[in-house]
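Lab notebook, page 48
Experiment: co-folding of the full assembly
Goal: obtain a model of how the components sit together before planning crosslinking
Operator: M.T.
Materials (sequences as entered):
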Amino acid sequence: MFQEAESDPKIAVAEYKKLEAHLRVRLLNEQYRHLNLQDRALLVIVAGIDGAGKGETINLLNEWMDPRHIHTLAFGAPNKQEREFPVAHRFWRHLPPKGETGIVFGSGYSPLFAEAAKNRIDTDQFERQILFVRKFESSLIANGVQVLKLWFHLSREAQHERTEHLLSNPSTAWQVTKLDIKAQKNFKAIRRAGQLVIEATDSPHSPWVIIPSADPQLRAVRTAQAILGAFTQRTLKAPAFHDPAEAKPLHRQPNPLDKLDHKVTITKSDYDTQVLAWQNRLAQAVRSKAFRKRALMVAFEGADAAGKGGAIRRVTRAIDARHFDIMAVSAPKPWELAHPYLWRFWRNVPEHGRVAIFDRSWYGRVLVERVEKLIPRESWRRAYDEINDFEQQLSGSGIILLKFWLSVTPDEQLRRFRERQESPFKQFKITPEDWRNRRNAKQYAEAARDMFAQTDTPHAPWHVLSANDKKHARVEVLKHIVLAVERALA
Amino acid sequence: MFQEAESDPKIAVAEYKKLEAHLRVRLLNEQYRHLNLQDRALLVIVAGIDGAGKGETINLLNEWMDPRHIHTLAFGAPNKQEREFPVAHRFWRHLPPKGETGIVFGSGYSPLFAEAAKNRIDTDQFERQILFVRKFESSLIANGVQVLKLWFHLSREAQHERTEHLLSNPSTAWQVTKLDIKAQKNFKAIRRAGQLVIEATDSPHSPWVIIPSADPQLRAVRTAQAILGAFTQRTLKAPAFHDPAEAKPLHRQPNPLDKLDHKVTITKSDYDTQVLAWQNRLAQAVRSKAFRKRALMVAFEGADAAGKGGAIRRVTRAIDARHFDIMAVSAPKPWELAHPYLWRFWRNVPEHGRVAIFDRSWYGRVLVERVEKLIPRESWRRAYDEINDFEQQLSGSGIILLKFWLSVTPDEQLRRFRERQESPFKQFKITPEDWRNRRNAKQYAEAARDMFAQTDTPHAPWHVLSANDKKHARVEVLKHIVLAVERALA
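Observation: model returned without errors.
Model output:
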């Protein structure tokens, strides 16, 4: 794998000069072509032997291309605030939009290389991490983010020589880091780790390219060529998608909507007592010291006019206005569409001690976007898996996650629509879209059924409630939240 | 001032019912009208006696209006990360865009009220804070953010009664905070503080409205009416602008561009030695422990093709890619235009230990926007003062701030333009706009002269450099940055 690179090949000056001019023009043209097309973002993962000149090469790329559309993203060890979130959070937050290029130092591969360089590898954890990275990448690619991975490599002797050369001049010595020197000692282990990880994560849709790095000019040429190769790839080769439904039909599970009792009600006085009591417990829980090391995310889905807003207000009344955010999810804005659909939800993951409430959520992908045919079939089929991964990362990092589906019967919905139309201050809540959605009720019900079957997981179960009696639904919502939070903090 | 509110007035139920229906319709209509117009953002500052029911009223407003376009912004004591930035940073970051409404708890007024409630007021500091808030508000208004300030007030007896009533029921007791109980004891001091601050900051362009709060229904009506009043105000009354130029002409100062020596050069070998030496010192300085409690902001302005990009690259080569960001400033995007022009720069203020480099900057307001007549004359005249305030806040919070103007002679600029046009990989750097700017050179020179006269301040001086010899300019840029950083860390 490293044979060519460890022979430390060089390029003749004359050939370099010729190639350089040619490559710069092509790189720039391609960069502008994608900027105009906005068809994909390019993510270049930078890794390799320390002291191989990665930073220098990336600086050069910034000179060759238009640097205003290249984002250098360098992730060190996560700081205290970053550790409050799932590991992938900071990568998601900084994903470049379509048309632009991100160059990533210290990617999700760093812990993989570190693990693989150990004398004794924790095989289980290593394999889990490999699987995570592979899934993450294939999801990125399926959602318009191209991934190119570069490994800068050279022989141990050449690495030593380069480091010594920089160290010999006091004006360049600062360029040599502790890692560069350490790499001398640990050359073998780093080399082995590289080999292991590259083999485990090389794939046609997101290949690794080995860059021979002993000669700065050949290094530059090969890097530019690799990026050109990515730019000129006609379409993103998304990995073959293993559809879980092929093995088991989406809906072969009992549908929680079927067994819902829409006759259940609660009296006004019971409601008043219970709402206050649950709000009281919720207030205590989110004000507790233990909650300062956790966070709460609550997603509300359901039919139009099912009473999501009213239920949300009963929840937020128990929480200090300083500690919650409500995200009302509607059609994505242009800059949101320039990112994978989960991006805007990743950006709204709450930090410790906070509550994030979603009035509609990431489930739009498998509900409205599916029913209204806004995306190809494969995209929403794939989304179940992506959403389960997303939620697993959330709950894995200690976030308390609840999902509610508020259901109303068609008659009750019609009654509420009419009531809204007649009320001068509820008219704004009802739009032609609501009536159209109502006509598509059957398709929405199918979509909901498949959604429950695919995303009702142990770490993020669905709470499906009848909201024909709004009061009943509000009490239930509060109760489920309180019990989940109290259980998590216990 | 508080006479009416302390008489604890009430509203009859029948009258309330009538008013409520009327107000809700009007509020919603006005909210949607501004959402479509996108003519202004509305900022509602919430203050008053603790336990007067502020939170309850804001919850109600969220029910009466479309809550998706209301942002409740609650600022507590700044956390560790927030303390790294100037005080106003977090307010700027969360400013709602035009068309939307922000409701602010814990605004910049909180420290003012706290100071004014003390037995011994530090008059100097208090007056400085008052001045700061007044200037901040008038700048917001001039830049499309309307400010409405509400003070919720009631008699001491009514406050006591309301608190006791909530406390008497275990299910509502949690709604009472320590502050509410404290407010009983300190009623007089809080009342006096309110009076003092309101008198000092009430103005026709951003008035205070006292909301009688003993009766929840009257409280709701008065709050809704105050917001309606703001919504229906035809145009934003920006405060009369005191133009510093009326007293002294903008350009009665020596123009640093006049005395610039464009003949100065540096030899290749001197350049190589010096660049490396300064980069070495810069690398040491930004890697030092002391720098972890500071930050560096460097703004580059100057003629097209003056070599800003090349100078920036010589600086960044000395800095770990993980620790700097380059912001290439071009015409604002639509969502940036929905905010005051300084907003996008506030968002890019670096946190501790980081370097932010601006390839063009907030000075666009008084350069391109002035010359190309993109904004009215008053806007750029006002901007000098706003920019000086901005920079004073930056340096006041410990940020090391440098501003460079790279100057080239017209002949040299023409030579570089032609060179760029002929080079296949520099063509992208030259656009029809560059040629037009060149034709407007005289107006740009005037704008630059006024800018130097108005914004060359002790805490943020301009470094005006000849860049006819690119190498000379690069060495000078590095030198000034190194000396400023070393001085600040000493």
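Interpretation: Strands of chain B lie at 41-48, 70-74, 101-105, 145-153, 208-212, 295-302, 324-328, 355-359, 399-407, 462-466.
Next step: discuss with group before ordering constructs.
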